[in-house]
Specification:
single chain, 354 residues, alpha+beta, Sulfite Reductase Hemoprotein, domain 2, Sulfite Reductase Hemoprotein, domain 1, 2 domains, 5-stranded antiparallel β-sheet, globular, iron-sulfur, oxidoreductase activity, NO2/SO3_Rdtase_4Fe4S_sf, 4 iron, 4 sulfur cluster binding
Length: 354
């Protein structure tokens, strides 16, 4: 994708990435791009400043690293692995769906996607998708999965409920029905034009009548998250959704030195690091704050977007750099109607890498 500062590569990670792999990915972004990286509101990774020459080299570097990413239909599962409230493993289910898609030559619209919300501490209700799989009654010995079409947690049309072991088959069959409608079809448009009959036929006997739509869940990605076995993960957000590759490398290296194994991306422009102990999480939060990341969910920078395009002609000023320098004071004044403070700065804990 071409932008004001060159070509942009978007990567949808399919699983958490090992610390070393993510650090190497950031290094490749710095080598082949301009070093500016972004996490989108949907939790995708973007690498900016690539060129016609460097983009293929960056793609080859990512492939050589074995980074797990979606190269066709984005299948977005709950980002936290092994959390105690999950009724099924969203990442395993996502892998089943990807395998099912790969086995069938489906011609789908470019933005068709699948979302899998396993009921864990990070809700995916805010993400719209053509096919949504949402865990119901996770505390039950026989959990059910609500199948929805064409929207987010509040607007998707409920199609029915199925068992977790049938969810992948149902999802792939629904995508096949969507592809059969037309190459550019989106679920909400097909429903508006034809109703649900096409999708009900595709799901077959695996669906029961849907219950009343569950209440939407609002959760926070920033902060401490409990994992199975007493471990934790910490979520930190990128200011304005953007960070320099060197800052990201510094953060994940500090996390790795303190016991973290993996990095995952989450909605709300958030980076997750784990598994770590609770006290380590607080120390890592201090390190992230020192590096300029957002560790307080109330931080006003979450409500400001910065343009990442190249500098204006004839000027040596970067609006993006200015927004970073100005943020501690300008955000307070511009957003003074909000009653919350910016996260306090902390003393440096470790030098950034050269």
């Amino acid at each position: 994708m071409e932008t004001g500062d060159g070509l942009l590569a978007r990567i949808v990670l399919s699983r958490p990435v090992l610390i070393d792999g993510f650090a190497a990915l950031c290094a490749a972004a710095r080598t082949h791009g301009n070093g500016l990286m972004e996490i989108t509101a949907r939790g995708s990774l973007q690498v900016r400043g690539l060129s016609d020459t460097s983009a293929p080299r960056f793609a080859a570097a990512v492939e050589a690293l074995g980074i797990p990413f979606d190269d066709h239909v984005p299948v977005v599962g709950s980002p936290l692995p092994a959390h105690p409230r999950a009724g099924f493993n969203a990442q395993d289910l996502a892998s089943e769906i990807r395998d099912g898609i790969a086995e069938r030559p489906l011609k789908l619209a470019p933005k068709v996607s699948v979302v899998i919300d396993d009921g864990g501490p990070i809700s995916l209700d805010g993400l719209a998708a053509d096919v949504r799989l949402t865990l119901l009654n996770s505390s039950s010995s026989a959990p059910k999965v609500l199948v929805g079409l064409g929207g987010d947690g509040e607007t998707a049309t409920p199609l029915g409920v199925t068992r977790p072991e049938h969810a992948a088959t149902v999802a792939v069959n629904l995508l096949a029905a969507l592809a059969a409608s037309s190459a550019n079809a989106r679920a909400r448009d097909v429903i508006a034009r034809e109703g649900l009959e096409r999708f009900l036929r595709a799901a077959g006997d695996h669906l029961d009548t849907p219950p009343k739509r569950p209440a939407a869940r609002t959760t926070e990605t920033i902060g401490l998250h409990r994992l199975a076995g007493g471990a934790c993960a910490i979520g930190v957000a990128l200011p304005f959704g953007q960070a320099q590759a060197l800052d990201l490398i510094a953060l994940v290296r500090i996390a790795g030195a303190n016991g973290a194994d993996w990095v995952a991306l989450a909605p709300q422009r958030t980076l997750l690091l784990g598994p770590i102990g609770e006290m380590t999480a607080f120390a890592l939060g201090t390190a992230a704050d020192t590096l300029g990341f957002i560790v307080d969910a109330r931080d006003p920078r979450r409500r400001i977007a910065a343009c990442a395009a190249r500098r204006p002609a004839g000027r040596g000023i970067s609006h993006h750099a200015n927004s970073r320098r100005a943020s501690p004071n300008v955000c307070r004044k511009a957003l003074s109607r909000f009653t919350f403070p910016v996260a306090a700065r902390a003393a440096p804990v470790q030098d950034r890498p050269p």
